[in-house]
Every structure is written in C-alpha cells, then in structure tokens.
Amino acid sequence: MKRTLTCIECPIGCEIEVELEDGKVVSLTGNSCPRGKIYAEAEVVCPKRVVTSTVRAENGEMIPVKTDKPVRKDAIFEVMQKINQTTCKMPVALGDILVENICDDANLIVTGNF
Amino acid sequence: MKNTYDIVIIGGGPAGLAAAISAYDNGAKDVLILEREEKTGGILNQCIHNGFGLTRFKESLSGPEYAARFVQGVRERKIEVLTETTVLSLTKDKRITAINTKDGIFTLQAKSVILAMGCRERSRGALNVAGTRPAGIYSAGTAQKYVNIKGYMPGKRVVILGSGDIGLIMARRMTLEGAKVLAVCEIMPYSSGLKRNIAQCLDDFDIPLYLNHTITKIEGDKRVTGVVVSKVDENKRPIAGTEMHFDCDTVLFSVGLIPENELTKEAGIELSPRTRGAIVSQTRETSKEGIFACGNVLQVHDLVDFVSEEAEMAGRYAAKYVLEGKTEHDYVEVLNGKNVSYVCPQKVDKNLDEHVKLFFRVTNTFKNCIITAKCGDKILAQKKKQIAVPGEMETLMLVKNKLSEIDGNIEVSLEVQE
Q: Which residues pair with A71 in a beta bridge?
C-alpha cells in the first residue's frame, strides 16, 4: 500500500511517499531531511501532534500552553477537554508544568511569561 | 524618557525587538522602542500555535516562546521600552510625536528611526462581498485575538474565506475549541498558506478546502445565519448555478495583509506599489536618509525567522549610520523580471562590501524552474527549484565579489525549464 503524506516538521512541507507492506515501511521517498523520515515513519503507524491551546488563569487571563511532546492524534480532543478544565495561579513562567502526564507521557507546559 | 535618542524604533513586535537588540549590539546603546499594545511581542503573543523558529533556533516554538527570547534580550540590555504608546506622526527630519496616558502628547528627536509597525488584515470592505452586515463577521486575526487572548469564542458554525496561514490556523483553533468549521473557501486555484498547515489544520480535522470558490452572499439580520459560496471561473467571476449554501453563525476573512505605512507616507518616504512597503536598499534604509524599515511593514513575510533576520540588518545599519554618519551610495535598481511579482530590496548599494540577499515572490505556481539574477547578460546568481509558489518567499544570494561586476540594473526572473 502506498501513502502520500505532507511533512509538517518545517515550512517546506515535503511530499513524502511511503510504501507499506504488512504495516511495515518498505520504502520512503520525497523527504529532504532526516526529520521527514522520522515524521513519515511515525505518521503511518501512529500519527502524533503537539497540542497548543490556552488555559484560563484564576485572574481570568488566558495563558498559552502546549504539550511538551506530541500526543496521539486521536487523543487530541481528550487533551483539549482536560486543558479546558485546567486553571492556574499567577504568576506563571515559560516552561512551568500545569498538568503532568496529560497524555502519552507528555506534560502540559506554559509557553509565555505572565 | 528623554527628548532625544540615537535610535527610535516604532513598533515592539518581532521586527522592532530584533532591530533594537541588533542596534545595541552594534554599538548604538541609546535606543527607545515605542509600542502601541500593553506589552511587546506583537502578533506573536496571539499566535499560540507552534512551528516558529525552525530556521533560526532549529526548534519548534510557539509564538509567545519565540517572542520571549527577544523580550528577554531587550530586557538584558536594559533597552528602554514605552508600551501603550501610539505614534501619531513622523517627519522626514526624524521627529516623532506620540501619545500615552502617562506622558500625554510628546515629541522626540531621533538621529535614526526604524519603522517596524507590521501589517494589518484586509477586511470584508476591501472585497465588496454582497449581503447584509450582521454581527459574526471577523478577520481571522481578530478572531484569533478573541480566542487566544480574551478567551471568547466568536461563534459555533464557521465558514472561512481565504486560505492564508492565519485562516488555516484559525480553522484548527476554532475546531479544537468546539466549533464546527464547515468550509474554507479560496478564490485562487491554490492555497496561499503553507502546505503543512493544509495538512495539520484542515486534513487532520476533515475540514473541506474549496479552491476556485468564494463567498458571494452573506445572510442574516442581527447575526450571520448563512453564506452562499460559488465556484469562480478563470477570471475569478462567480459561475451561475454553482451556488452552495452553508448555515453558519460566523464568517472569518483571511484574505491578505497590508503593511501599515501611514507614518511612512507622512514622512514622505517612497513606497513600492508592489510590496506596499518602503523602497529600500539592502541596508533597509528608505528613501529618507537615516530612516530604516524592516519586517512586515516593509514586505509581508511568511516566517518570523526572516523578519528577525531582516530586522537585525536594519538595526545594524541604523547603528552604523548613527556612529559613522552618512556614507556615499552607488545604487543600482533591482527590477522584477519575468514571472517575478516583487523583489526586496528594490535597490542595491554597490559600495557595500557584503553579500546581498534578495527576497522575492513569484507570480504563479511553477514546476522545474530556474531563477536568475542578471545584470545585462551577466549572471549574478542562479538557482533551480522543483517548485516555486507565490505563497512562499524565495531568496537569492548575491555574493559580494559579484557586486563589482554590476554595471547596470539587476533583474530577477524565473524561467520554466523544458
């Protein structure tokens, strides 16, 4: 089975062709860097994404957050639900962990200084 | 705050911050940044998604993370910043009048000015979309500010016009927050957004992208109740009989950005009709000596990494101007050749002994093409591309030892290879 993917690792957006046999990658073409290979190999087995969103702090301010690792694509809405139930006390700083292991070993971290 | 500064920077977004740091590090310590919003960082503060900084820092940062590195740099150097301060006017003699609630109206004299005001979004009014004028119509960036900074959802059922990156990013963002994005319509046969954003913002969430389609009617009395979307022909005119109706309560416009050059015009600085920014040399000096421009106020960039790079150049040359004074220039023009819609800088000073990076955009999608910068018959720089698209800025490097070969205007053009 052949699949064509758009790499999301950088703004170039390489079109990568992956050939699969019994769920295993037998050939991979079109990537222009090693990151593309890693992305495509993961994408055909278990697609993952970093989730970025906001958390409302106790004083009402919106705090930008992200998962510090990619999480399973099919768990994104579960993660969003948890994010929207989260709040935090001010002040917060870049890198502060708001939720440990929100999903797949990834933590929810703050991405700005407030 | 003093009355005079060596360098005053108008705008504390990514361009202004990088320009300030660069000016300082190149010897100009007397620098002031004027910023309209409550804090510096500009549009990056509301761009909470990741993907920034891959070129510059080799890692994927969110907008606030990218901004924080430059905010930190400005703080470490103790560069003076005035926030919540709006510049009202700029003269060609580099006198700046500004206003804020603490100091009232005040005037500053600068030896050099760096324009870093960024850009604003084209609005519905610029497109003449037919229909009523109900609530629920936003530019994509406004919606982004509501969701990410204010924490308000602008609507539940959304149609987006324009497939620029902000529109694509907002399609995903609204979806994540529980809205249903029914369609993204693009009048052109291609998206002006990055391919990875089509993949991760639309395809990931099964949001349909309608190319060669536009909104031909907005319906609703108090609030948007629906839109009519039509297919367009090759002249971008709606085709009768192709209408589709969508029930929606919100319409987002992501239909391009316009450099914010009101102050630039007032100072009598020459603008390019192509970029809608100032005409500059490779130093980013405008037609007025000692006034520089960088970032989206000069040319709308795709990537903030290039904004920072350009701003550092402007900052360095502004510092040089302040420290060394006026220098002799020997300009040649850079012309838009075949299949090239603009080149920035628009002129090159041959007296400078440094490589010159030309930024430009092509007019259409081209496959297997060759891009050349020429002076007469002499090839100054050339590169092959498998694909070139209008949505992605291209670059060519003129190496410095080629500059001495230039004896006339430079032309950048694209040829498709057979």
A: A49
Cα B66 vs. chain centroid, distance in angstroms?
Answer: 16
**DSSP symbol at B202:** I
Domain count across chain B: 3
Kindly state whether A10 is in contact with chain B, defined as any CB-CB distance less than 8 angstroms. yes
- H/E stretch holding B402 reads helix B400-403
Residue by residue, DSSP assigns B292-360 as EE-GGGTS--S-HHHHHHHHHHHHHHHHHHHHH------EEEEEE-TTEEEEESSEEETT--S-EEEEE
Which tops the pLDDT comparison, B326 or B49? B49
Calculate the CA B53 to chain-centre distance: 16
Residues A58 and A105 in one domain: yes
Mean pLDDT (whole number) for B149-173: 96
Q: Which of B59, B196, B204, B365 to mutate to test the interface with A (most CBs of A within 10 A)?
A: B196
Nearest to A65 by CA among A74, A56, A73, A78: A56
Per the rule left: phi > 0, alpha: psi between -120 and 50, beta: everything else, B136 is left
Cβ burial, residue B274 (10 Å; 0-12/13-18/19+): middle
Q: Tokens representing B91? A: 């003269």
- 3-class DSSP assignment, residue B112: strand
Name the residue among B150, B176, B204 with its Cβ closest to that of A53: B176
Range of the domain at B302: 1-121+256-327
Q: Which residue, B255, B277, B310, sits at the end of a domain?
A: B255
Q: For residue A113, which residues of chain B lie inside 8 Å, CB to CB?
A: 68, 71
> CA angle, B64 as apex, B58 and B69 as ends, to 5°?
55
| Contact state of B302 with A11 under an 8 Å Cβ cutoff | yes
Q: Helices B63-76 and B304-324, interaxial angle, to 10°?
A: 20
Which residue range(s) make up the domain with A19? 2-45
Give A23's pLDDT tier (boundaries 50, 70, 90): confident
Indicate if B65 and B143 belong to the same structural domain: no
The residues that bridge with B332 in the sheet, in sequence order, are B348
Q: Could you report the predicted ipTM of this complex, rounded to two decimals?
A: 0.94
Contacts of B63 in chain A (CB under 8 A): 64
Note the helical H segments in B97-164: 140-145
Closest by Cβ to A50, choosing from B50, B67, B147 = B50
Pairwise CA distance, residues B275 & B295, whole Å: 12
Per-residue pLDDT tens digits for B175-195 = 999 999 999 999 999 888 888
CA pair distance B34, A99, nearest whole angstrom = 37
Q: How many degrees, rounded to 5, is the angle at CA B190 between CA B169 and CA B59? A: 40
Residue A82 touches partner B, C-beta closer than 8 Å: no
